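Here is an idea for our session: we take a single protein and study its fold together. Once you have written the record down, we can walk along the chain together.
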Amino acid sequence: MTQLLPFVLFAFVSSITPGPTNVLVLNNSIRHGFGATLPIIAGACAGAAGLVLLIGVGIGGWLIDHPNVQIVMSWGGAIWLSWLAWKIATKPNVIQLSSARRSIGPLSAASIQVINPKTWAMVLAVVGVFAGEGAGVSRYLVLAGVFLAVSLGCLAVWAACGASAQRLFDSPRRARVLGWVLGLTLFGSAWSGLLGAYL
């Protein structure tokens, strides 16, 4: 596959740059540690890779034929991400290294990809640029697998950064500031993606 290296670079840039999933991973790794964030990373990456596969094998065409479904998904996604942003901003002002208290689980992290504007932009680029005309299931399986591997590494970097920054937020005041900064960042990324798609 001559496009494999360009696709790896695309997957890297798509996964390492800030977006709703990256903010959620960073928040959870700061508050609960690297190990507690691994299920979230696995769920988010599997969700995005699964979306590449589903869109590639036909659901993308159905969505193009039903633009109202896309609009409802986009607005619903922005509202749900706003709720998550509020939860992050108003979370108790302590850092707790406990996997039991993470804000979302792997299934929620996977489902976020369905409503994440950044993920949709990535998926449409995969289908339009990297799959090639008349691509079959095997091509999309390869692309989804490569994206899964690259995104796992990228989100692990975000989690490692968050875990290493825990000591910076060991006071209630700093934890409160962190919550509001990450909450506002998530809120902004959700709505900027939505408004960018319709303006």
User: Anything to note?
Assistant: Helices lie at 4-16, 20-32, 34-65, 67-89, 106-115, 117-130, 137-164, 172-198. DSSP finds eight helices and no strands in the chain. The mean pLDDT is 80. Residues 47 and 110 are 4 Å apart (CA to CA).
